[in-house]
Each structure stands twice: as C-alpha cells, then as structure tokens.
Amino acid sequence: MKITVMTAGEQILNLDVDPHETVENVKALLEVETRVLLQQQQLLYNGREMRNSEKLSALGVKDEDLLMMVSNAAPSASANALSFNPDGSAVNPGAFQQHIKNDSNLIAQLFQSDPDLAQVILGNDLNRLQELLRQRHRQKSELRRQQDEELALLYADPFDVEAQKKIEAAIRQKGIDENWAAALEHNPEAFARVVMLYVDMEVNGVPLKAFVDSGAQSTIISKSCAERCGSTLQGYCSWSWSIRDIGSRIHVAPIKIGNIFYPCSFLVLDAPNMEFLFGLDMLRKHQCIIDLKDSVLRVGGGEVSVPFLQEKDIPSRFLDEERFAKEASSSGAPVTSGTADTSKNSPSGGQSSGSARSNPTEGPDFEAKVAKLVELGFGRDAVIQALKFFDCNEEQAAGYLFGG
C-alpha cells in the first residue's frame, strides 16, 4: 500500500510499504530518504505515537493514509546559527551568508528563484541582507494570509450575503492581478514613460526645441521664446512688440529644419512648458511625415529628415508638466475672498455699495475670447472654465490650457 509521510520541515514523502510492515522498518526507510537517524524519529498517526514494534495494519494504517514524522534530535550549534528570528531575519547573518556561499548548487538555484537575494548574499552588506530577509518574510506572511482567506471563503455559507460579496471581490481582484501579470509579460512597454516628440529647429538663427504636435491646429511660439527671438522676428510681424494680446500672429518667418529653410507663420501665447509648438497647420503645409518606426520627422515629403530627441536631450522644464501646470494656474489668479480690495472696481466717487458691476463672463467680448481659444483646438467647456478662473484674462487662460 502507499502511505504519505510529512516531516517537520514540511517535506512530503510517498512510500510504498507492506501493510504488515513494522514501524521500525518504516523508520529505516525514512532514514535513507531524510538522513534523520532512526533513533531520532518519532512517527505519529492520528496524533498518536507509533511504537517501533507495532505493525501498520495493527495500528489501522490504510492505503493513502498520512503519517507525521518529528525529529527529536537536539539542534546543533550550526543549526542555531542558521535559524531565523520571528521577523524573518537571520539569527547570525554572517553564518547564514557563508553557508549559502559555500553551496554552489544552492547559489545557482537562488539566482533562478530570487536573483535579488542571490546578489545580496554575494555582497558584503549584512544590513541589506537582513532587510531583504524581513521583506521576504512579510511577503510570505501576506501570501499565507490571502490563502487562508481564500480557503475560508471556499467553506463559507453559500447563503451568507457578506461572504458572497467577499468571494465576488476576490474573483474580481484575481482577474485584475492576472491581467496585470499578463500585461507586464507581454506588453511591458505600456508601463514605461512616453516621451513626447521634440526636434531641433532654428527660428531666424535662434536654436530651439520644437514640440511636434499633430493634435494642435496652429503652430505656436511661447511669449518668452518670442522675446528671445525678438530682434529678428520684429520685422516679420504686424503687431506691437510688447505682445500684450493673446493670439498675436507672426505672419511669416523662416524656420530652419535640417539644412533647409521653410516659411512659417505662428501665434504667440504664454505657455511656460513649451517654447515652440509645430502644429498641424505647418505639418500639412510642408507635407511632414511623423515616422515613429525610424523615429524621425520627414519634411517636404521626405527631402529632410530630422531625428526626434531622446529624453536626455529635452530640457527638464519641458518634461515637468505638473510643476509648470501649477505655475500657470497660480500666476495671475484673481483674489476671490471677501477681504479683496474692491476699490479699483468701484464706480467714480468711491461708492461701491449698491452699484451693480457687469458680469465679465457675459456679453459679446467674452464670447469672442471663447471663440478665439476654441479655434486653437481647446474644448469650449475647458475654455469657459479657464476664462472664468482667470477673470477673463485670455492670455493667462491660454497659458493654463497649454500648460495642463
């Protein structure tokens, strides 16, 4: 008949023995399998100790039954040195490290199952080793807790509403975990940071990083970049160089892409995290192709190809969108608290009480500002919200929309 023996170290052994075999002979077989001396073994069946002279059939042991083997050997000093604390750390981390180092097979297995731990074992940082052992212990404890909860749910009352809700949540979470694991295995690039498309250009000899955006209707230059290029751009625009109004347009100016100059027109906006946006209007005009396979921008139907910049070549201020969005939203925001100074808005004579002030978010002027921003590619609801937030200052609202 076949019996199963589980050792104190959770090792499971399957033995094929005769039903009339003595317990002593079974222990002899176990000594070969476990290297635990016969005299140090204690066999238990249904919680009762089995004596060496007794036979398995007389004790009621049947086919496929389970026996427990406990070793009563006194732990050696080396065994104590390789034991663990309740938190999972080694009692003697130096001895534990040296023991694994001396076993090449164990090191090879560890590199397969837990390469991080193997690297720490081969290193010299015992504090890091202890911390990693504690981390692994916490992970195993959490896994055991989850398994216990799942086992408890399996035996829960099928008519218990709360238990069924927990089972439903566990099934849903298991599906999420499996989907996450599959995504990490088959589509890891989806979790990497996506760098936007930038290329090197020149506006009248001034080098800059141009953001290529086919989702923007217009090509745009930031206010700061326009001021930097001011001495050369002044002859190409029909507006005052103070750049006070949003949407001021440079009708035509040469931009250099690769080694060729192209005529370009663009708007001036106050966008802090972008200095030059190459929009759909100029992309179409110059027959540009965004080639993601070769990571280049092809201009003029392919007569010029310029590579998209790598992340290390893009200024960090362009990549830190969240910080600049906060700066844009906080710059020039109106004070709306009750302690705000209303003297500037009061009618002549200084009498503010009883005088109704016109609502700046109503009327043709407000609609004209909304229409102008919508033409730049923003949604109407987002435009109205931004204008209300910035007290109808369309330049600040545009900067906020482009910064977010």
Automatic annotation (TrEMBL):
A Pfam family annotated for this UniProt entry: Asp_protease
Region annotated Disordered, chain positions: 326-364
Gene Ontology annotations of biological process type: proteolysis
Biased composition (Polar residues): 328-361
Homology family: Belongs to the DDI1 family.
Subcellular location: Cytoplasm
UniProt-recorded name of the protein: DNA damage-inducible protein 1
Primary location group: cytoplasm
Key words of the record: Aspartyl protease, Cytoplasm, Hydrolase, Protease
Ranges where the UBA domain occurs: 363-404
Region forming the signal peptide: none
InterPro entries per the UniProt record, alphabetical: DDI1_N (IPR033882), Peptidase_aspartic_DDI1-type (IPR019103), Peptidase_aspartic_dom_sf (IPR021109), UBA (IPR015940), UBA-like_sf (IPR009060), Ubiquitin-like_dom (IPR000626), Ubiquitin-like_domsf (IPR029071)
Domain Ubiquitin-like: start-end pairs: 1-70
Molecular-function GO term, any one: polyubiquitin modification-dependent protein binding
Domain of life (superkingdom): Eukaryota
Gene3D superfamilies reported for this sequence: Acid Proteases, DNA helicase RuvA subunit, C-terminal domain, Phosphatidylinositol 3-kinase Catalytic Subunit, Chain A, domain 1
Keyword Cell wall biogenesis/degradation: no
GO cellular component: cytoplasm
